[in-house]
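[Meeting: bench + compute handoff]

Bench side (C.D.) handed over the final construct sequence. Compute side (W.E.) agreed to return the predicted structure before the next meeting so the bench team could plan truncations. Sequence as handed over:
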Amino acid sequence: MPGIASLRANSNATIDATITAISAVRDVTTSRGASQVADATLQDDTGTITLTLWGEDTKKYSVGQKVHIADGWVKDFRGKLQISMGRSGTIKIVS
């Protein structure tokens, strides 16, 4: 499986990584209405990337957990790559 270092903007990605940090949850207003968002830092042997967590997902995960992201969406946000679930992505905790 490719690592974080091989991810490219505007593409789907499947990765395994460890959560090394999670920001405070913030309230935001989007085109779909009010929501909550938090940023988790993911790390593997090749690098780090920010995972954007929305809504209920902001409460599901904690530092130190290993996660598997399938079909996540990678984008360039202010010059840094981020990954989110997009329309079809899933995230699960790997034991």
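W.E. noted at the follow-up: The chain has no helices and seven strands. C.D. will use this when planning the next construct.
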